[in-house]
Amino acid sequence: MKKKKKVKISKFEKVLYTISCLLLIGSPVVIVFSKSTLSEINYEVEKLKKEIKNQEKENESLEMKINELASLENIQKVIKDEGLVYNNDKIKNID
Asked: Quick one: average pLDDT of 51-79?
């Protein structure tokens, strides 16, 4: 009968194997976590882009309304409705 020789593993090898196992198990977890975080950030970016587009549309609409209300025709209509008189002689231009 032959005796089996026990192979002794040094402390350095144990530490090396432990670190290797942790890296093999931990790296996929880290990759999945980082991809998940990146996906969340991309979702937030798209959400903010959509909000910006909506705000730009609203701003454009409000600018059009301002231009409409500030038009000469509208001002003259308000003047007539309020009973005021538009006198061009009293208007002074400053250059």
From this structure: 91
Q: Can you tell me whether residue 84 is helix, strand or coil?
A: coil
Query: Of the candidates 92, 55, 57, 86, which has an alpha carbon nearest to the alpha carbon of residue 73?
Result: 86
Q: How far apart are CA 66 and CA 63, in angstroms?
A: 5
Per residue in 36-46, pLDDT (tens digit) is 999 999 999 99
Backbone angles phi, psi at 89, to 5 degrees: -70, -25
Cβ(66)–Cβ(72) under 8 Å? no
Question: Could you tell me if 79 and 86 are in contact, meaning their C-beta atoms sit under 8 angstroms apart?
Answer: yes
- The Cα 20–Cα 26 span in angstroms is 10
Give the ranges where 1-95 is alpha helix by DSSP (H). Answer: 11-69, 72-82
pLDDT digits (tens, 9 = 90+) for 1-44: 667 777 788 899 999 999 999 999 999 999 999 999 999 999 99
